[in-house]
Amino acid sequence: MNYKSSLVGSAIAIIAATSCCWVPMLIIAAGGGSTIAGLSSGLGKLSGLFLAVGILLLILGIYQYRRRNIKKVKQEMILNSTITCPHCGYSKEEVMPIDACQYFYECSNCNKVLKPMEKDCCVFCSYGTVPCPPIQLDKDCCY
């Protein structure tokens, strides 16, 4: 069970747990007042169970979500990327910064200054063999 199904399950269980309160009002609004007594007492007996299941599923969903994010952060980042100049084709291995994006890069061969392509956050995402560390971790980069 993933965290999304746990959160959805908890929402459904909590709605079911509170059904002894909102179902009778719904039945009265629809014009069926005679069935309320039996239905309300039956749902009232189960509301504690539904509430407990809802809370457990909610806790499980939050735990799974946090565990998933911690795993992503612990992934090994690749910090070396070979950047290739689009003007002259010269390639050079560079170490990427982990705390900032590199927006400009000067080619050592032709001295042209590279900028990221549209929709890329840095020169490594545009011209490198490996995307920058924030993109590797599925985080927003420098926007």
Give a short summary of the structure:
The protein is mostly helical and 143 residues long. It contains five helices and four strands; from the N terminus they run H-H-H-E-E-E-E-H-H. Helix 1 packs antiparallel against helix 3 and helix 2 (19-30) packs across helix 3 (36-74).
Total of helices: 5
Give the helix/strand class. Answer: mainly alpha
Radius of gyration: 28 Å
Most strands sheet? 2 strands, antiparallel
Assembly state here?
single chain
Strand tally is 4
Helix content: 40-55%
Name the overall outline: rod-shaped
* SSE series: HHHEEEEHH
Low-pLDDT runs of 5+ residues are none
Mean pLDDT value: 79
Secondary structure: elements and pairs:
Blueprint: H1 3-17, H2 19-30, H3 36-74, E1 80-84, E2 91-95, E3 105-106, E4 113-114, H4 123-127, H5 133-136
Helix pairs in contact: 1-3, 2-3
3D structure, described in words:
The model has no long low-confidence stretch (mean pLDDT 79). The longest helix has 39 residues, at 36-74. Helices cover 52% and strands 10% of the residues. Helix 1 runs antiparallel to helix 3 and helix 2 crosses helix 3 (36-74). The two termini are 33 Å apart. It contains five helices and four strands. Strands 1-2 form a two-stranded antiparallel sheet. Strands 3-4 form a two-stranded antiparallel sheet. The radius of gyration is 28 Å and the shape is rod-shaped. With 143 residues, it is mainly alpha-helical. The chain has helices at residues 3-17, 19-30, 36-74, 123-127, 133-136; strands spanning 80-84, 91-95, 105-106, 113-114.
